Amino acid sequence: MSRNLTIDSDSAAAARHARYGHLPERIRFEDMTEEVEAAPAGGANASYDPAGSWKYYSCLALDLGL
Fold this sequence. Notes:
It contains 3 helices and no strands. By secondary structure, it is an all-alpha fold.
């Protein structure tokens, strides 16, 4: 029985080596990154909205209901 187990493990090892025995091709850094033009700061998205500023106001007394 140990002989049959050895043959099975050898064939399993050979199958693993055939499938995973080599590393994939290396990917260059230039292929992993992408350059995108950014919008300039202070554009239409940066306008001040006084009516909406309460959404970002944080006060501990208000949070506690005091």
